[in-house]
Amino acid sequence: AMLEIVHDLAPGAELWFGYFGFNTSSGTSLDFRQAVDCLTANTDVVVDDITYVNNGAYDGTSVVSQNTSTELNRLTNRVRGYYNSVGSLSQQHYQEPFVDSGFNVSVGLNTWDIHRFQATATTTNGGQGRNCSLNPGDGFCADRVMLPPNGVLRVGLQWDDPFGASANDYELFLLDENAATLYLISTNEQNGNDNPVEEFSWLNDTAVVQPLSIYIGKFAGAPKTLDMFVLCEACNPIAGNKHNFNTISSAVLNNADAGGGVVSLGAINASDPGNNDIAAYSSRGPTNDGRTKPDAVTIDGVSVSGAGGFSSPFFGSSAAAPHAAGIAALVLACQPSLKHGEPGDAPAADRTALRNALLSSAVDLGSVGADNTYGAGRLDADAAAAAAGCLPDLDGDGVPQLVDNCPGDANPAQQNNDRNFIDLSPPKLFDDLTLARSDEAGDDCDADDDNDARTDADETGGVGCGGAVTNPMDADSDGDNYLDGAECALATNPNDLNSKPLLAACGAPSDTDGDGITDAREICHYNTDPNVVNTDGDTCSD
């Protein structure tokens, strides 16, 4: 499905697929890293949507994240751009410091202090938290999910200790509320040389929805900041999220948090009016070391073929990332000097130039400048091409020279009244609706905006035409169905409805070019060429 999106944007690109057993759950993070190594060595652009829970801290230091960054920056590798999914987990995350609820759980001789869940400036309470006791004033001791039949819940918890050196020991408990059974479900030991992680998976093999409560217990050590992902696509929503206590920020997993120029993409639905609003599920940053993620946003919710049973439309940042990869492929196609093996090859500079072309030209959304919702903004293929020097922008207005309607004048708005509806009342069909006399020139450099054969300067300055001042945005100022320029040429008053030339004075009554309009009307009514069937070359006859 991702390759289909790349192909839609860059149909000339050769496509590779790095299979590593992910579909069968046999692929490990080592297999994934080997696939990354292979692809970065052999292709120009790499895109993935693979993330890992508890493979390391969510700060770019995990072995997966470091490998992705390293291979992108390896001087001998062919790759020039690496794009990945920032994740679709903003509704499945919790991050807060440990707070002792005052309640505990004992199993044999062991006792755990239970964490208090609560709403904060960054965490919401969906109204279904598990109370610590029958007294609501005692607060909440558990997060809750609603797991439907055959649904799978996976929970990954870590805290801010160094990996391989944690002496603060936490565990996870799970209460099956239907069965009234509490499980001590994840019991990794942390005694000074261990990873600060706990995790479990749970299948609902019953025929009813299971309300499940997740408890975090501190067995030994100091209070730490807890970072938990509640991965459950099938879970019934609680106040719009997949669990009760949700933290929308810092929901960036391993690999999505990779640094070193790796571009992580968030998602905006294709159906969103204006394509300006982030998808609710798109993961927000920052990373846990404070870096901005995502780096940018692109579109999801697009059609794919459905091959292999894949759903269509295709939603999630998994669909957003290949849009960025396709744009990068197009930029490399039109600016081959950035590719591997070109004369004067400079891998580091090429990668930076490609990345900057995409990010510096993005449409800024949300807060001014880069932010942890939209990154640099929504990528724009044409603007990225211009920024990469594919399409020169000599007037510096951000519009590529080849499509700039005033290539010598800075006019970023590209306003062109030739393309606007000025007056649709019959028989004034010239230019406005049928574009019979459009000239493509923007207002900033168009000498005759209304195409009435009288320049704007002459109309506003009363030059010629007996000193008559006419409207440069109205081709027929007096409404007598004769162009202002034609009236001036035939010595009638363009501001007097009752002063108009005889049609015979405009030219022959015949239709020289056979376009269905007499020569006289073409000259005096439409300012089209009586000798040319299609004056403006738009494939439609005058």
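Second entry:
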Amino acid sequence: MDRRLCSPACLVIFAILVSSCTGSPPAEESQVDERVPPPSESEARVGESEIEAAINASAIESSGVGGAPVERSLEERIRITSALGRLDDPLWSVRLDVRELIDLDARDEADAVGRMLADTHWTVRNEAAEALGQFGTIEYANDIANLLDEDIGRVRVSALNALNVFHARHQIERVRGLENDPDGNVRLMASVLIAKWEGYDERVGAWLRQLKDVNSDVRFETLQAINLSIYGELGSTVVELFDDPVPSIRRLAVMKFRLTRELREDFVDQIALLLADSEPEIRYQAVFVLGSFSFRTEVKRKRVNAVLVLLLNDPDDDVRAEALRALGNLGATEQASQIADSLVDTNVDARRQASETLAKLRSPVDTASLFEVLEPFVVRIEVEYEYRPNLPDFIQQPAGSSGAGFFVRGDGSVVTNRHVIVGGAGLTTGGMAVDWLWPKRVTVITSDGERLSTLDEIWLHPELDLAVIRPVLESDRKISYAPVQPYLPAVGDDVIAIGHPRGQDWSLTEGNVSQLREEMYDPFDRKSAVWIQTDAAINPGNSGGPLFDLYGRLLGVVTSYLGNSQGLGFALSVRTLNDWRWAEEDEHLVWRVRR
């Protein structure tokens, strides 16, 4: 696949965001590396009005850029008002709630926090210094510098950290006085600031020139030398390299920019432009940056959410998975339906991340949509038995049987119950089943009606009543399968079971987790497993089918039901399934079909 172009949905981002881009003007023609040919017209980014509509529909009006007030929910406003009221409490432990203003990023209340620099208790003064440093309120630099005379080393470190954020180089002489401080952390931080500030103008000036050098090697080597966690003020110049014609420089620029904190939101539009880059690694880095920090304004958060949704169709597997993770970090609850579509992504990591994101957002998928997404994972298993003339009198020889199973790997591996394959009935807690019947032929039927023959070798786990069979597939056949992860539900969680109860193919039943029961299945090696008790309707034909939660996560393998009870079924937890690895070298677990 030609990597010069990403999906059309990604490429069109450029024209929409460039109109609102607030960064520096493009470099002059003399700064362009003449050794790198300009992109052809076919490689240029283009724009579409439908993408602009998608972004604008998710945004809310805000007056001004950068100067707009922080938009807060009622709950946040109540929390801020309450925290401000506690700053005057006579108890220092209550006044310490100034740290809640940090959690809420309440930089609009910097004046109230600034008054706490004169608090009578050192812990409150320390928290106030940290808050003002995070808020970037440079007007308090001199007041914070006074904390360098404190007796408490932790306060001095917090003051130094804040001065670093403020780039308060005019305080260098006061910092020099701490080079021999008795506190090692203070000495270390002081030495870092002195090394940074001495000759600062000359050093930074040289870097600024080199970052704009026409020689791409100079630009690349300069980028490598800069630590933006210390020289964050160079971030705006590094952002200009997001449009560099050399992919390795663009990639390094965004990786370096990840180290900044206070500048990220100021350049959100420039970062978003990288989502249309022709290099998948650069798109990945851009998504990572956008999903790794919180936005102070709702309008920017919603814009980014809308743009990231476009990345769900990116041709690169890692980019799609990272976009899903970012949507979870950004709280994109309004995008739950698009995220749910990724539960059937061609890449298993993206499918796994989709369910993780839905769970993080607490956004369950409606049952009808979930069934449509999960149905292709589930199969029907038909077994034809070999005739056995010497069965006990109480056993009637059936011609065959059927049950459920589901794909768990790209090679077509299907997990089901052991008793579906060899007969007998596994006990509720996974006790060994008796092999009364021998399969002569095992067939897997997919949700679209395709009938697949299976390999002769079957992996069986007697104690856990598990079996793994492998259909014979064409070399280019792609299988959509359920990622096996050690999820463990909580009592009361909603669950669904998909199977073929009494021949009613691909039936869905809903219920709750009634209890989790851990019991030992191998007393000699002291191995135990977890069974999920559920009131979802379980009947013959459900055996071997999957149990899912409403985020699309696989929870367990439906194992049994108590025939004389109602609402009492069991599934073996996928946590136990995840611990069982079937492989050809496990000869004691391999059972060969008799022909």
